[in-house]
Amino acid sequence: xxxxxxxxxxxxxxxxxxxxxxxxxxxxxxxxxxxxxxxxxxxxxxxxxxxxxxxxxxxxxxxxxxxxxxxxxxxxxxxxxxxxxxxxxxxxxxxxxxxxxxxxxxxxxxxxxxxxxxxxxxxxxxxxxxxxxxxxxxxxxxxxxxxxxxxxxxxxxxxxxxxxxxxxxxxxxxxxxxxxxxxxxxxxxxxxxxxxxxxxxxxxxxxxxxxxxxxxxxxxxxxxxxxxxxxxxxxxxxxxxxxxxxxxxxxxxxxxxxxxxxxxxxxxxxxxxxxxxxxxxxxxxxxxxxxxxxxxxxxxxxxxxxxxxxxxxxxxxxxxxxxxxxxxxxxxxxxxxxxxxxxxxxxxxxxxxxxxxxxxxxxxxxxxxxxxxxxxxxxxxxxxx
Length: 385
What we know:
The protein is mainly beta and 385 residues long. Helix content is 5%, strand content 46%. The strands form four sheets. Strands 3, 5, 6, 8, 9, 10 and 18 form a seven-stranded mixed β-sheet that branches. Residues 368-385 have low confidence and may be disordered.
């Protein structure tokens, strides 16, 4: 059976506007970003002479929707552009940029009109902090949205009955595999000990993929007079909210506590494996995700790759990962904890290039929800401030 090209659609409540798109996720390849393209089908009778616009926006939200800074919800539009789709300002051929648009226009008829947007280079990727069970209405997220609406002009208040809102994601895949092998070495000196403790961490590669076990080699040479015990390892996700607040969230997303020990005058060389998975952290407040917790295709947020020419403050939130190895150094005059950190990347792999099948199959725009999740009619749209 030949493969089919899935086309996602969403229709306004009054059936006047229907949006068709071949993607819900758009990839930042570092040197370029996938364009946002699609087709709108209109019911000209329902429009009653109004114009039709499509808007692409990127918004940073921080705090509760109903009350935040001095009683005002904090929301900042990082990017917004609106295009008139109907009546057409140019011929359809000039507005059609992709093969899938051409196929959709042929299939959907004369009342179908194309739209096309390109992302600027400096926008962040989609990321959201997971709220806790008691954080009703709270939100901290970088969100992307496509809106299609009917109005006399683009500044007119949007009528929900004749508009369509679609949450899309801008995501980043791992760049070509780096040959860099991460290594961290530290020497600790203790009071009343003539010789030091030496700890070395190394990983087989810099970038790991979501769902992949993360391996770390630990080498401890204990020449000190202290005994090392209770070695523990943790994968920590660090989220910096660089726009507006400079808050920092540090969350352990995988942990292993051992009874391994390294008595004075001995050494240890051992490989440990950790599993940083969203499935093990569903109830953890403050975790950064690349989507919504209730969607099946959501992961822990990928590591942020900041382009050199882009200001960090524009990124909204930056996400990093590190391995932290902690241990207790105990001696006759007391005990103390020592630790060593090693940063690495956690990302999605670059997907195989899609073929271009002739056949198309239409599906609702909503993402697949986890079993047991109940959602409303318009749940795919982001919460309005």
